Amino acid sequence: MRLKRLTFLCAAVTAALLLTACGSDTKTYPVRTYGMGERIQLGHIVYQVFETQWMTHLGEGADQRIPQHRFFLVRMSAVNSAGSDISVPTFAVEDDSGATYTEISEGTGVPDWIGFLRSVKPAEAVRGNALFDAPPRRYKLKIMDEDSEKVAYVEIPLSFGAETPDVIAPPEKKQ
């Protein structure tokens, strides 16, 4: 009797393990890294990253915004190739040590801001600058498909261009 129970229990556990292993329909997609300027299709979104810019502040006077590190703008586009409206997920940048900086949701003062909540109609695109607050380094921009299932990275080298960033003087104390 005991042997029958043990055999039945082993058969049931084996069947359960086989069913859970066979029932998994999730496919794994390779995570690729692209260069700036390359056309990248993830799901129904076609991305292209054009250029970057580092800024010490946004705006002027009373509306001026100062970052914790530096403002990092990434000029890009995301085209909807689906037959219905889709939402473009938020972005993040990751440095070589694994530190991640997420996209800033407030775009006041950002030239040609791409927006934060991005609903795109079929065959249309969103274009502009995504905004991050990050220290100047080399980064990889993390992009995803509309379902956040497929991921890819865009290699972004550290470049300040020919322009010298503005230096902001600390506010004077009133006595």
Short description:
This protein is mainly beta and 175 residues long. The protein has a single domain, classed as Immunoglobulin-like.
Defining traits:
single chain, 175 residues, mainly beta, Immunoglobulin-like, globular
β-strand percent reads 35-45%
- How many helical elements? 1
Order of helices and strands: HEEEEEEEEEEE
Oligomeric state: single chain
Placed side by side, the strands forming the largest sheet appear as: 1-11-10-6-7
The count of DSSP E runs of length 2 or more, i.e. the number of strands, is 11
**Structural class, from secondary structure content?**
mainly beta
Runs in which pLDDT lies below 50 for 5 or more consecutive residues are none
- Report helical residue fraction: 10-25%
Q: Count up the domains.
A: 1
Mean pLDDT: 85
Rg calc: 24 Å
CATH architecture: Sandwich
Question: Tell me about the biggest sheet?
Answer: 5 strands, mixed
Q: What is the global morphology?
A: globular
- The third-level CATH topology is Immunoglobulin-like
Tell me, what is the CATH class? Mainly Beta
What is the first-to-last residue Cα distance?
A: 94 Å
How would you sum up this structure, described in words?
- The strands form three sheets. This protein has a five-stranded mixed β-sheet with strand order 1-11-10-6-7, with no helix packed on it.
- Strand 2 and strand 3 form a beta hairpin.
- The chain has one domain: Immunoglobulin-like, CATH 2.60.40.
- The chain is mainly β and 175 residues long.
- 12% of the residues lie in helices and 37% in strands.
- The chain is globular.
